[in-house]
Design goal:
Blueprint (H helix, E strand, L loop, with lengths): L2 H33 L14 H4 L14 E4 L12 E6 L4 E6 L11 H10 L7 E3 L17 E3 H9 L4 H9 L5 H14 L22 H12 L2 H7 L3 E5 L6 E5 L11 E9 L3 E10 L2 E10 L2 H15 E4 L2
Antiparallel strand pairs: 1-11, 2-3, 2-10, 4-5, 6-7, 8-9, 9-10
Helix pairs in contact: 3-6, 3-7, 4-5
């Protein structure tokens, strides 16, 4: 073989190896980006939880993915006391902050998000429900036995005033009765793919058989926001509702003190008991972007949320994928 032929053969072999190596590296990094399981803020949007937030159903609207948020300075994190937290951009299903998102906590009154979603499948807003028993535990709307109220007014009492008595009125009037309603609540969680949640009562009263996670509650919060009626209710600061005969009137005030105080906060649901600590699901809009903020077992849910809002405003940028 001539020297020229040998050099050409060696060059061809070297080129083939270079091409192979390039192909292998390309394949490795492609798979890495698609299935990366870690916590890098920059890589989450390739795969993390996107399937759950973008899952299609007849009840849910699919968010269109546009610009995707990223953390400007990853060394800066929001200062919070909550033991569990999850912050997600709704349009792209991109999480921007996580803390113990799969840990099970007592949900307290954020349970009422599932109560409302479950009941909405069975009742019309104008349906009339009767108060069959009075629940005097925790926050109540001061309903009276025998009083008859529309389902819509009871939803206001449940979602903005967090009335435990109103939650039980809905469950007691559910087709099949209270126990059937509790079963329906748990079927609803499965439908929403809330795989680490279980409910024993409609109000959120403490029970160690009743639990949820920050991630699961983000799925519940998203489902509520996709319901225009419920979304409007949770953004209401205060309202007075009556029974159908206009004999009893009930002033209702939103427990979420951030509503109307922080621009962009559109409600969602509070929860608090001695065992559960302070829970809060917040819907927040900033510069055309929408976020769900879930806090569980906080020492001060409102201060935590204020800190998170400030962190989002100052430390989140957006990029077009």
């Amino acid at each position: 073989m001539s020297r020229k032929t040998h050099r050409e053969s060696k060059k061809t072999s070297t080129l083939t190896w270079f091409q192979l190596r390039t192909f292998l590296l390309f394949s490795f990094f492609s798979l890495f980006f698609l299935f990366y399981p870690g916590n890098s803020y920059y890589l989450h949007f390739f795969s993390y939880h996107r399937d759950l937030f973008a899952s299609e159903s007849t009840e849910q609207t699919i968010y269109e993915v546009g610009k995707i948020p990223y953390i400007i300075n990853t060394t800066i994190k929001p200062e919070i006391s909550a033991q569990g937290a999850y912050i997600v951009d709704l349009s792209s299903a991109t999480p921007v902050f996580e803390k113990n998102i799969e840990n099970k906590f007592l949900p307290a009154s954020v349970t009422k998000v599932i109560t409302a979603l479950t009941a909405f499948d069975a009742f019309q807003l104008e349906d009339v429900l009767e108060v069959k028993r009075v629940i005097n535990i925790g926050q109540t709307a001061d309903l009276i036995i025998g009083e008859k109220m529309t389902f819509e007014n009871l939803l206001y009492a449940v979602l903005i005033h967090s009335g435990n008595d109103a939650a039980y009125v809905i469950a007691d009037n559910y087709p099949g009765g209270y126990d059937v309603f509790i079963d329906a609540m748990n079927k609803k969680t499965l439908n929403l793919q809330m795989k680490n949640s279980h409910f024993e009562n409609p109000a959120g009263l403490d029970s160690f058989k009743q639990y949820s996670t920050p991630f699961d509650l983000s799925l519940a919060g998203r489902a509520l926001l996709q319901n225009k009626t419920l979304s409007k209710i949770v953004s209401t600061k205060s309202i007075t509702v009556s029974d159908v005969d206009f004999r009893y009137f009930h002033p209702l005030y939103n427990i979420n003190r951030l509503l109307g105080e922080i621009p962009g906060v559109g409600g969602l649901k509070t929860g608090k008991t001695e065992e559960a600590g302070e829970n809060l699901i917040t819907f927040y809009k900033h510069n055309g972007f929408e976020y769900l903020i879930v806090l569980m077992k906080s020492e001060d849910r409102f201060t935590d949320t204020e800190n998170i809002v400030g962190w989002i405003n100052s430390n989140i940028g957006y990029t077009q994928p």
